[in-house]
Design a protein that fits this description.
By secondary structure, this protein is α+β, with helices and mostly antiparallel strands. It is 21% helix and 28% strand.
């Protein structure tokens, strides 16, 4: 049985690393309207379908509206079979300042499939802040974290702000709930404001450099 259009829209959100809030902002549709159409009983309107196709040129209209074929198109508008998670070769992650990124706007340079791991996105690493656990030149696979309440200090995260893209361990400040501390083996720890975080991703696997 084919997925419903609501299920296909959810798959687009997962592919693009979006949640209801970020999708509402990107698509220009009120969050309540979007939630009712995707997660509740309201019918999906053509405004939402049109906004998705206008915003994401790599989404197949036939797949979105009818469930026919594959979700993604290649750069020439032809159907592209699922090749794995998007890999952004020109967006390295570092302990230093890097331009942030919006997965809804960026075009991946390729795709990586690692069957035993389910990563949403892959990025190359530059810098030595997380050595010896992660080396410069490695590739990390990440999954988006929906809530900062889910942060585990024993895990490694990719943190995206308006000015930086970095990998760190994280923990919440015990005295100031607005702050989160970023920790790495080779640099001093520092705090950032949670309100400055655009997105945070759990590092779920690593492809070691040769």
């Amino acid at each position: 049985m084919k997925d419903s259009i609501k299920q296909r829209i959810v798959r687009i959100f997962e592919c693009k690393g979006l949640n209801a809030n970020s999708a509402s902002s990107i698509l220009g549709i009120p969050q309540r309207t979007l939630n009712r159409q995707v997660n509740e009983d309201a019918k999906v309107g053509m405004e939402l379908v049109t906004a998705l196709l206008n915003r994401f040129s790599d989404i197949s209209p036939a797949w979105l509206m009818l469930g026919e074929g594959d979700m993604l198109l290649d750069c020439d508008g032809e159907v592209m079979h699922d090749k794995g998670a998007p890999f952004f070769d020109d967006l390295p992650v570092s302990a230093g300042l890097r331009d942030a990124y919006d997965p809804a706007l960026e075009r991946p340079s390729g795709y990586i499939s690692v069957p035993q791991w389910s990563a949403q996105f892959y990025f190359p690493v530059s810098g030595t802040s997380m050595e010896p656990e992660i080396h410069s030149g490695d590739i990390i696979g990440v999954n988006r974290v929906e809530s900062l309440r889910d942060i585990d200090p024993d895990k490694i995260y990719m943190i995206v702000t308006n000015e930086s893209r970095m990998i760190k361990r994280c923990y919440n400040d015990k005295e100031n709930s607005e702050l989160m501390w970023c920790v790495s083996p080779n640099y001093p720890s520092f705090a950032i404001r949670k309100s400055d975080i655009c997105a945070i991703f759990h590092v779920v696997n690593r492809i070691e450099r040769l």
